[in-house]
Amino acid sequence: MTHAFPPQSDRGNITLLSLGFAVFAILLILVGAAVTGVHLDRTRLQHIADELALDAADAMDTGAYYTGLAPRPTSEAGIAVSVVNAGRVASSRLPGLEAQYGMDGVTLVEVTSLDGHTVTVTVTVVVHPLFGSSGWLPLGDITLTATASARVH
């Protein structure tokens, strides 16, 4: 039996396949590194929010307490938190925490207290995935937000 087409050599086809697998593996490693970097930044931002909330919760309105203007602490709630003092404490503590956790551009969004005994702090930061190289990646910038609460007892 004769073939209509002469058998062709497979020479050179394995090189193309190997090159394709190598490019795929490199892309997979880069995406994994980018996702890991964003996750670590999110974790650092949450640590910053936690520490700010704890520091802000210590900003009790001791002046009102000692002058008798604040309600006495009970077993359910301690001395009332001054939102103004809490915001001031969080703002002053933020640059030190940025340096401690190696993050730049963290913004204090808000410091609130709905019941006067729980302080809620929200911070945000814009991160650049894959080692800050947002110029040549289609991912762009990612905005991370973290919120933490601390209660005074």
SSE layout:
Elements: H1 13-57, H2 62-66, H3 83-101, E1 107-112, E2 118-127, H4 129-132, E3 142-151
Antiparallel strand pairs: 1-2, 2-3
Number of helical stretches of at least 4 residues: 4
Instruction: Supply the helix-strand structural class.
Output: alpha+beta
State the strand order across the main sheet.
1-2-3
| H/E series | HHHEEHE
Instruction: For the record, give the distance between the C-alpha atoms at the N and C termini, rounded to a whole number.
Output: 93 Å
When the domains are counted, the total is 1
Q: Calculate Rg over CA atoms.
A: 27 Å
Largest sheet at a glance?
A: 3 strands, antiparallel
Give start-end ranges of low-pLDDT stretches.
none
Give the fraction of residues assigned to helices: 40-55%
Which features characterize this protein?
about 150 residues; about 50% helix; rod-shaped
Describe the structure.
The chain has 153 residues and is of the alpha+beta class. The protein has one domain (14-151). Helix content is 48%, strand content 17%. It has helices spanning 13-57, 62-66, 83-101, 129-132, and strands at 107-112, 118-127, 142-151. Strands 1-2-3 form a three-stranded antiparallel beta sheet. The longest helix is centred in the first third of the chain and has 45 residues, at 13-57.
